[in-house]
Amino acid sequence: MAETAGNSKLEGVAEAAQSLKGGQAPGRGLPPVHLWNPAHSGEIDIVIGRDGGWRHEGAPIGREAMVRLFSTILRKDPDGIWLVTPAEKLRITVEDAPFVAVRVDQAAGEAGQPVLRFVTNVGDEVEAGPDHAIRVETDASGEPRPYLHVRRGLEALIARPVFYELVELAVERDGRLGVESHGAWFELGPATAA
């Protein structure tokens, strides 16, 4: 099968991202995309669907390692979400949030305070707290749309089964249900909705 120009561009971005592994930011093993301001910018036909699936030119990106790699070079700017390397930045389309929180575990943190640990569809592990807030919007039909801040303005949609687990862990305060993690309180919604 002949390689298309779009696939060549995709492979080029993947190669550039792979080469960055040596220059990752401390702590999370993520490249410092927030520091890069490449002169070349454009667009690439990559869409992250509402379900967290990645598509290139309409076809699913089936290589999980490539999706994970691309997820490490995502950056949210005022004008959109981009794949960023030191040489170029390419705008992509995100239908909702770039990540999906697919698992949550509750543990005891310092002094026994609760800690909620989430795992995203691309393998990020995030502990909810003051720097990683949980927020819940309500869509037009009245259904909750819960999100978790992952990093630098990028969020994960909390999958419905994971949100149900949060509701099970929730406690009521002043007629509102919420959860606590790292000393921060996050409202999930009115107690009557549960």
Task: Describe this protein's structure.
It is built from three helices and 15 strands. It is of the alpha+beta class and 194 residues long. The chain folds into two domains: 90 residues, Roll (duf1285 like fold); 95 residues, duf1285 protein (duf1285 protein fold), CATH 2.30.270.10. It has a six-stranded mixed sheet with strand order 3-2-1-6-5-4. It has a six-stranded mixed sheet with strand order 9-8-7-12-11-10. It has a three-stranded antiparallel sheet with strand order 13-14-15, with helices on one face. Strand 7 and strand 8 form a beta hairpin. The longest helix has 15 residues. The N terminus is likely disordered.
Q: How are the SSEs ordered, and which strands pair?
A:
Elements: H1 5-19, E1 40-48, E2 54-56, E3 59-60, H2 64-71, E4 74-77, E5 80-84, E6 88-94, E7 99-108, E8 114-120, E9 125-127, E10 134-138, E11 144-151, E12 154-158, H3 160-169, E13 171-173, E14 176-181, E15 184-190
Parallel strand pairs: 1-6, 7-12
Antiparallel strand pairs: 1-2, 2-3, 4-5, 5-6, 7-8, 8-9, 10-11, 11-12, 13-14, 14-15
